[in-house]
Hints:
Chain A is of the alpha/beta class. Chain A has helices at 10-16, 34-46, 58-63, 83-96, 109-114, 117-125, 176-181, 196-207, 222-225, 232-241, 267-271, 285-305; strands at 50-54, 74-77, 102-108, 130-136, 162-163, 166-167, 187-192, 213-218, 248-251, 254-258. In chain A, 34% of the residues lie in helices and 15% in strands. In chain B, helix 4 (80-95) links the parallel strand 4 and strand 5 (101-106).
Amino acid sequence: MNDNDTSVDISALRNEQPRFTGIESGHRACLGCGEALAARLVTEAAGPDVIYANATGCLEVFTTAWPESAWRVGWMHSLFENAAAIAAGMEAALKRQGKATKVIALAGDGGTFDIGFQALSGMLERGHNVLYVCFDNEAYMNTGVQRSSSTPHAASTTTSPSGEARMGKRHLKKDIVSIVAAHHIPYAATSSVAYPSDIRKKVRRAMAIDGPTFLHIHSTCPLGWGHDGALSIEVARLAVQTGLFPVIELERGSVVSVMPIRRVRPVTDYLSIQNRFRHLFADDDQARVELEHLQALADHNIEVYGLRGEKADALDSEGANTVQRGGMQWA
Amino acid sequence: MLQALEGSQALARTVALCRPQVIAAYPITPQTHIVENLSRLVADGTLDCELVSVESEFSAASVALGAVAAGSRAYTASSSQGILLMAEVLYNIAGLRMPLVLTCANRAVSGPLSIWNDQQDSMAVRDAGWIQLYCADNQEAVDTTIQAFRIAEQCELPVMVCVDGFTLTHTLEVIDLPEQQQVDDFLPAFSFERRLDPANPISIGTLVSPDYFTEARQSHHQALENALQTIVDVQQEWGQLAERNCDALLNTSGPADARIGILTLGSIAGTLAAAMDRYTDNPATRLLTLRTFRPFPAAAIRQACQGLTDLVVLERALSPGSGGIVGAEVRAAFSEIQDAPRVHNFTVGLGGRDVPLEIYPHLHQAIRDGRGLPFAILDLEPDKLPEAAC
């Protein structure tokens, strides 16, 4: 490199990077996209000896506008509803070839809870050695914020709008992790983009297991949820701290650990900073009923999973986001 | 070695000879005996491969696709509703230029429900970008299946081998099943350059904007057109090895001076050949059996039809509101040439309706009567129609 040449040798730079990154910068995700961050964290923790099957959705679209690709790992996108089946085929092939390369399927909530549900169930039942990661941003964001079966109760989307006669989505969020765990797979867990150390830990756990594993990551969508992109992590953290999104781990269908909530927050702290719930704060009896309903759902989660922490814990809802790469010395 | 085998059994054993590494399938009549036989071969230890018994045809095609992308030879088989459930994946496999082989045990498509043979299923996906080869008998199905893997892997295109459900899949025939060594010599071990490999990461199936999509489609179209020559070459090579010669694109039999021709595809060809031997007092007839439907061998058809005044296109599928599917394409192939034969287009044998030997003199009568211009269903029984449809 001469003195006038300010360009950087990218491959040399990559080799000097302290950690492996599966998704490069320069992709086209929105500012504050929770899914982009969560996906990067997953690829970092999983390492380079992986091939990916990606369902149709934001992640596929914002990372691979031909002739560019943000992926530094072997990656394929086939269709919306078949990520689990593509991954199963990859795994069968690699097994046949005697390779230890892991297969990871990536999909959104639409591709997991709804249209890809059957393929997912089939893959889990057949026991393929696949880690399936669902980035849950609670609606069809790629097509412009339509409701999915993961959309929370009372959230307004373009197909469940709030109006004079409706308080947003009328139905409950599907309890996908329980359904997945009911396949009695070795490991199923939930996590949140607000807790990178938790994501990393769970990816590593899943990577070490020879069999089907499932990781459900709550991922904010500033555009679809209606909050400032800068608040993505805070919003995601509040979903956990209110009890609306329990962070849990299950082995063979049984809960084995939960992230305790150090200080339980009222659901209104979470709801009031997102436009998708704005109608719940109108001076309206039905709105008050729905708020009570959502608080009851959070209380139910806290009760059922025993989420209330007894004392401060480095890995609880206040501590876990301060755990850095390299250990818990800052916790 | 000659042996009496059921079509499905022969096909399963042929697939095994091709050493697939991943097989994914979902049972559907009349394809079931193929997957059952393959499962038996795996259980016996005769076939060493990953057999993925999936929860749907959609996943069968997807698993096969994933397997090829990860670098393994893959196979699947289906029929009818299964082919249609796969349709989205079939387009995707072809568009991503993934070499794999699918056997379609041809069956009617519901509704109303019919489990019996016609070719509506494979015709419904003729534009998916697959190579489609139609087999006249089970020996041809065996030979074509082996060739299909070679063609697929050489062209980086998927190949659908179409065999008439029941008529072929469930019929015992004397088959010359090749030796393993013969197949190994003909079909090299699977090696796919565009496979997903952590050491050399690539992205497959990206989002393509209007800036590039047309060119992607054109290159796919061109690949199919180029495949015509590969199909011919591969057939020639296998024909020499197996000492069985047939024409790769279109088989022609009958007197060269015939003025009347019948073009068909699939097992009806055998019925017509037998009928021509029996009903010898009919005008000389040239029998054209279309083996390769995609890519469409328009030039070969034009050549084979030289000298004909009348051509019957006899097919087992229907495009409601239009008529015959193959017939329309054959007519289009003649559109630029002078003195092309008159094309009589008939659909016959829908939903398993038997196509007997007697169809042959019936066709000659239809030509004399000027029927099938442009299109008719040949074996319709009008007294069974509801009144409103008459």
